């Protein structure tokens, strides 16, 4: 009899805990619309600095437990549920993050104990990030309920990052209340697996000192990252600062080579050169090593030139169209040199077509000596001016 009584007592206590975790708490008053947020444009923020990404992948962990239905008492979107505020903060982060080549994943935890036995949910696995991807996922996020197995969600994040070979970030957004699943131990496991390749950032969306401390402890455990509050990063300026610290690193523009051609942007007179193209000191794609006989324009196979490189670049970029521009020194009349420069540009085109490049992808132009890149007063300068340049056409 005592055994039956204790079993019944345990059953009733379990039901009480579970239904308490899963309880829905509707709002008692009309809710004002979410505050308008205008993100900062980090790409245009500074004329001297460019922000480039410092991580390859990030995983967002969103608390979707019952306590997140409680009203948020902070300054941002006050009166809304903590869950709504948490999603709004992530939307602000998403809108502020520049368009970069980065991977993301989203995990939620909570959901109640009676929903197919799941208490964490991988909304989408690690994939190429886009603003629309995360925005749609957040808009479709489930109503919060259930307890808070944050440890299980951190374990999910650890497993999701297995396909990432670079630096990573985990961003946990929660009220920090009654977190279960041994989150500290799971944070240790995360650190042990990835070492210096992972940082943990926690965003506190709550109103208890215990919850805030819980999230701070998690960030400290990984020894890389930090903890912030929803109010603390809600403004455009503060959110921009958060995004820069988590995702980006500032590089002086004088040290940036955007097209990877070996010439810094500050000196690059021909930006957006295709990858693999051989360029001159100006960063311009040129035909090198081809010399023409006096008043001649034929190209000889024995030239030690980069024509093979041009063929290779065009083969690797089958949708690319180019214009070959011929230039000369200033010996002779302008009329003569324009005609000569066109014939030499045509000779380069004929060579490329002979190597299998579709002629419809190539146009030509002759400028004679209208666009010198060096002085025509010396032989060295004149030799630099006798050139053919390759210009990609967008």
How would you briefly describe this protein structure?
The chain is of the alpha/beta class and 394 residues long. The chain is built from 10 helices and 11 strands.
Describe this structure in words.
With 394 residues, this protein is of the alpha/beta class. The chain has two domains: 36-254, Rossmann fold (3-Layer(aba) Sandwich); 260-393, OmpA-like domain (60s Ribosomal Protein L30, Chain: A, 2-Layer Sandwich), CATH 3.30.1330. Helices cover 34% and strands 18% of the residues. The protein has ten helices and eleven strands. Strand 6, helix 6 (209-222) and strand 7 form a beta-alpha-beta unit. The radius of gyration is 31 Å and the shape is elongated.
What's the overall geometry? elongated
Put simply, the count of helices is 10
CATH superfamily of the largest domain: von Willebrand factor, type A domain
Rounded Rg? 31 Å
Low-confidence stretches: 1-20, 22-30
Helix content: 25-40%
Main β-sheet description = 6 strands, mixed
Supply the CATH class of the largest domain.
Alpha Beta
Give the overall pLDDT as a whole number: 85
> How many individual β-strands?
11
From the coordinates shown, what is the CATH architecture of the largest domain? 3-Layer(aba) Sandwich
Q: What is the string of helix and strand elements? A: HEEHEEHHEHEHEHEHEHEHE
CATH topology heading of the largest domain: Rossmann fold
Strand order of the largest sheet: 4-3-2-5-6-7
- Straight-line distance between termini: 85 Å
Structural class computed from helices and strand pairing: alpha/beta
């Amino acid at each position: 009899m005592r055994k039956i009584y204790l079993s019944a007592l345990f059953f009733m206590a379990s039901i009480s805990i579970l239904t308490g975790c899963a309880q829905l708490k509707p709002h008692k008053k009309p809710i004002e619309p979410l505050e308008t947020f205008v993100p900062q444009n980090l790409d245009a923020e500074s004329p001297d600095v460019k922000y480039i990404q410092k991580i390859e992948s990030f995983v967002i962990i969103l608390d979707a437990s019952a306590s997140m239905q409680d009203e948020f008492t902070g300054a941002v979107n006050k009166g809304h549920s903590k869950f709504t505020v948490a999603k709004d903060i992530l939307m602000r982060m998403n809108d502020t993050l520049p368009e970069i080549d980065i991977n993301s994943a989203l995990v939620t935890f909570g959901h109640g104990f009676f929903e197919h036995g799941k208490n964490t949910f991988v909304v989408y696995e690690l994939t190429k990030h886009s603003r629309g991807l995360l925005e749609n996922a957040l808009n479709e996020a489930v109503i919060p309920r259930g307890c808070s197995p944050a440890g299980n969600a951190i374990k999910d994040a650890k497993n999701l990052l297995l396909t990432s070979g670079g630096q990573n970030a985990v961003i946990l957004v929660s009220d920090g209340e009654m977190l279960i699943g041994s989150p500290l131990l799971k944070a240790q496991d995360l650190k042990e697996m990835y070492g210096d390749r992972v940082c943990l950032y926690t965003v506190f969306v709550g109103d208890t000192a215990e919850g805030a401390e819980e999230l701070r402890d998690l960030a400290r455990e990984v020894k890389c990252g930090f903890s912030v509050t929803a109010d603390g990063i809600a403004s455009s300026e503060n959110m921009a600062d958060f995004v820069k610290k988590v995702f980006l690193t500032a590089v002086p523009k004088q040290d940036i080579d955007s097209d990877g051609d070996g010439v810094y942007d500050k000196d690059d007179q021909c930006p957006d050169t295709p990858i693999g193209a051989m360029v001159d000191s100006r960063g311009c794609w040129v035909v090198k090593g081809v010399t023409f006989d006096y008043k001649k324009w034929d190209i000889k196979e024995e030239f030690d030139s980069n024509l093979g490189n041009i063929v290779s670049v065009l083969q690797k970029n089958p949708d690319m169209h180019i214009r070959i521009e011929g230039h000369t020194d200033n010996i002779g009349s302008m009329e003569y040199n324009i005609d000569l420069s066109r014939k030499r540009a045509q000779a380069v085109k004929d060579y490329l077509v002979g190597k299998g490049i579709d002629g419809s992808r190539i146009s030509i132009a002759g400028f004679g000596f209208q666009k010198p890149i060096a002085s025509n007063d010396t032989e060295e300068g004149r030799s630099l001016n006798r050139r053919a340049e390759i210009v990609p056409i967008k």
